[in-house]
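Note to self: the last two entries modelled the partners one at a time, which told us nothing about the interface. This time every component goes in together.
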Amino acid sequence: MIRLCLLLFCAVFLASAADPPSKTFPFPYTQEDLANGLRLVTIPTDSPNLVSVFIVVQTGSRNEVEPGKTGFAHLFEHMMFRGTDKYSPQKYDETLKRAGAASNANTSSDRTVFHTTFSKEDLPTILAMEADRFENLKYSLEDFKTETGAVLGEYNKNSANPGSKLEEILADTAFDRHTYKHTTMGFLKDVQDMPNQYDYSIKFFDRYYRPEYTTIIVAGDVDAKQTRALVEKSFGNWPRGSYHADIPVEPKQQGPREAHVDWPSPTLPLLTIAYKGPAYSDASKDSAALDVFATLVFGQSSELYQKLVVREQKLDSLGAGSPSSVDADLFTINARLKHVEDLPAIRAEILAAVKRFQDELVPADKLEAVKKRERYGFTMRLDNSESVAQTVAEYVALRRTPDTIDKLYAQYGQLTPEDLREMARKYLIESGRTIVTLTGATAAGAGK
Amino acid sequence: MKWLLFVMVFSVEAIAQMRIVALPGKSPVVTLRLVFTTGAARDPEDKPGLARLTAEMLTGGGTKDLTYNQIVDAFFPMAASVGSQVDLEMTTFSGATHVDNLEAYYKLFRSMLLDPGWREDDFKRLKDSAINSLRVGLRGNNDEELGKEVLLSELYRGTPYGHYGVGAVSALQRITIDDVKQFYKQHYTQSNLILGIAGGYTPAFLDRLKKDFGALPAKDSAPALAIRPPAIAHTHAMIVEKNTRSVAYSLGFPIDVRRGDPDFPALLVMQSYFGQHRESGGRLFQRIRGIRGINYGDYDYIEYFPRGGLVLEPPPNVARSSQAFQIWIRPAEPPQAAFTLRLAVFELNKLVKEGIPQEDFDRTKEFLSKFVNVLTKTKRAELAYAIDSLYYGIPNYNAYIKDALAKLTRDQVNAAIRKHLRADRLQIVAVTDHAADLKRQIVGAGPSTIEYNSPKPAEILAEDKIVGAFDIGLRAEDVEIVPVEKVFE
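The predicted structure of the combined assembly is written out below.
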């Protein structure tokens, strides 16, 4: 069915160059809500014998509202593998093994995703086992403390990369009150204090691992009706919760900010220029316009990239973008320099490019090329059930439905050069700007 | 619908043979994957990095007619590109395009591979990028990948495998554009080419592809590779010293088993039981992270597996004629680091002595028989695995694994473990801030201790005493400390 759908999509796409955009997400799907608030999205594809189950919990580091508790959503992703009375961690692993499953999980600011890809005959077993841990997770104080060691280990393996440190400082500098002030990994002091937070962890589970926060995506060689019956049977008795996080509202930034990181080892200088951008939206042009702006002004085929990376070779890399977040988040421009002495000039060039496209319009043909690229790129990545489920999971984390994909691409389709200029004028302003630089102990790289 | 796999041998002339792997289908995406069975093992001794730089010049530089900027611009609306991957014995060029754009895409693809522009400014940029990837990407930012690559270079020291594919800084600075042209001329030949294609292309398109790449020189004049890794007389450790928070380890030794050999399926079961990549059910993971909470994960390998920190499934088309058994211990806090190393070798010793339990054998076999479908879930992966199967001279990978597992017994696995694995004569690589301290803690019989943040069962505490005093056979004279600035420099 994938192939058929893609061909249909292709026909639609070709015919629609001048027409209003129609369906971008090419797969028919079923979306249903259980009485307890759990949502199920079933997407049959033609991946023979394989099924991907993605369970999206709309809880991430954004939900870490209490001080001293940063990194908890991520810790909880780990705790979900610590077993129940019925399935010990060992039995859980053994069952996954019997299913030949590839399984993992990840956490970001807005969501935690648990995913498994396996043979279709094991769907009833996997769903029953997943329901059991979402409803009946049970771990001892000892197990909790042991798992915090693994989380510290994850912090350690990330800490070798200066980019992680820059990200941490950027968030902390740019935000005052909103929980986007900390990264998903959390502050080191909070990660080190995690072993003392057992009681809070129970509270966290009770608040957020609830059906109304959760969407199950099942993609692959599946039947929607049978899947619904299986999910109803396994998850139907999971009680709805009542907690609503009071996410602090970020006050309007009143002026430009700056920070610098001294990295203790040799490394190439990093420069990040960030602005307070919009929240994800499929109902307005704001986030779509800034996405396209990022590609046109700082992407690989932009004038600036070709000048600084390809011709003058002052930069090792250049890119920009914003993360599609539930609340207003940062639009960032990231550059890695070859020579530290170029920092002031590169900073000036990037700021000049932002300024230029607040005055001038981007060429219309370039804008059309980006639109084409976005849609071809989107279609080509949906080449198996896992990537279909993964793509849908990203959008479900934001709007709880794949419908948002078509709405978003409709926004892309309607963008004009004037829209891009307007959004640059609205968001990429000095009073909402934060600049962070990072330089190594001594110079490194090819230039020295 | 099950897609048919056509493996054809296409003779251009008597001496030259280009091999074709074609997976026709109705998908609107056409995938091209051209693998040359040449790579970093062909780097001249004084110019490591040449093979990779050559491939980079094709995919990251201009052609005779177009500058690199023009190529990027032309690909842009198609959301397409051509990627390259260079390993020791395989150089892969891959890309995909919507069938709408096939003509325009292929025109670029063809000229990038067959009519390179060899421009000096592209060369300088790509050389800088290679040096930065060594100094910053690997040595500066990625202790774990650094440990793995140092391990492999050490295991094959003095052989064509004994260097890192990206090269060494001083060698990269020496390489000239003429070296690159010469490498291309000698090794990018029909006899080295496996031409892979999948998706909704026409037979006429495939004919055109064959004809175009039939313009390459017929044969590579290089003699066949014969990789004989040096024997390890005593367990040896190389400690790479750098400013970092924790201690990352890789350890192992070469094995005389590769895909297609009789013991390969048995060792595959062992590998999965002992430490399936990025899964929590492996023995190493359970004993080090699951029970003791020491680090983020612990895995083992019987084939090369680059970029393991980033990917969950093994990257295909890194086939090698010699493989190594490797254990990857993710960073541990310095006070627990010595104990962690002893624990990993203790578990390896136990595996060699006791083998795999029956229940685990049954489960692992079932896992691998199904997991193979996950590995080949995309057309792209199916194509890449088919190319590897051609290299190793085995049938379709899924059939090969399923058939072999169906016949495999636990005794065969345990015999293969005893035959090919050992817990002595290891090469160990550690990346840490305090090399002298670590050296002192890991030589001899310890004891190394561990403290926990929560009570542990009595049997674990008792095992900790045994592990802490477990002598991994490392003598002080067999420990080498190297500052990170010297690695791959």
